[in-house]
Amino acid sequence: MRRLVTDTLITAERNIVRLPRQPDLLAAFTIQPIMFALLFVYVFGGAINTPGYDNYKDFLIPGIIVQNIAFGGFVTAMGLAEDLNKGLIDRFRSLPMARSALLAGRTFSDIATNMLSMAILVVTGLIIGFSFDASIGEIVTGVLLMVLFGYAFSWVFAFLGMLVSTPEAANSLGFMLVFPLTFVSSAFVPPETMPEALKWFAEVNPFTVVVDEMRELWVGKSGGSLWQAVAWSLGIIAVFAPLAVWRYRRTAER
């Protein structure tokens, strides 16, 4: 276990240190969140009715943070696909290191990038008019929930990254999964405004559960459930972490 932890931390450090040398990925965590927030607030915000909220910014910021946290898993998918394509996974197998450390290190490094994206969005939100209606404890609970949910989706993307052989394919596959999940949820508009079939999907969507709980924690709006949000996150980890490890071992043995 000690060896696994050490190897995981070393692998995570490798991924984080490489990030500044990847300007395209760095821009995705710094510029893209700001562009999304400004786009929805100033272009679409005036046309979206959000009953119970004084302004659309308070409705939007928790939702767009959840979206960007999920998108953070793209780094894991694309990174694993690139390592697989370049033969680095075979090289890692030849080293005296825990086999699962490569996957665990990838997913743990996502926590750092997700925290960066979250901080940028919170600062952007505060500048454009978002305001907390929460205690320090509730704000911290929201941050921890985002860390857990982002970590869960990192395992989803780790599995996707092991299914394909190129970063481009990993990006396309991940986009096809996350795009409908984030947009057919309560992240940007109330589900009540959607057609009946989409409304049903949005209400059972794990993104809606997490977004609603974030709004309850940070903006003081009822309707969320912390336990459901945590249960969804743990359930995703329980399903996709073993799948990712299984796929990794199967790929490495070929």
In angstroms, what is the radius of gyration? 19 Å
Distance between the termini: 26 Å
Q: Number of DSSP helices?
A: 11
Low-confidence stretches: none
Q: Return the average pLDDT rounded to an integer.
A: 84
Approximate strand percentage:
under 5%
Provide the succession of SSEs. HHHHHHHHHHH
The residue fraction in helices comes out at over 70%
Number of domains: 1
- Which secondary-structure class do the elements indicate? mainly alpha
Number of strands: 0
Basic shape:
elongated
**Quaternary status:** single chain
Q: Outline the biggest β-sheet.
A: none
Word description of this protein:
It is a single chain. With 254 residues, this protein is mainly alpha-helical. It has helices at 2-18, 23-44, 56-71, 74-86, 88-93, 101-128, 136-163, 167-183, 196-204, 206-219, 226-252. It has one domain (2-252). The protein has eleven helices and no strands. Helix 6 (101-128) crosses helix 7. The longest helix is centred in the middle third of the chain and has 28 residues, at 101-128. The chain is elongated, with a radius of gyration of 19 Å. The protein starts with a helix and ends with a helix. 42% of the residues are buried.
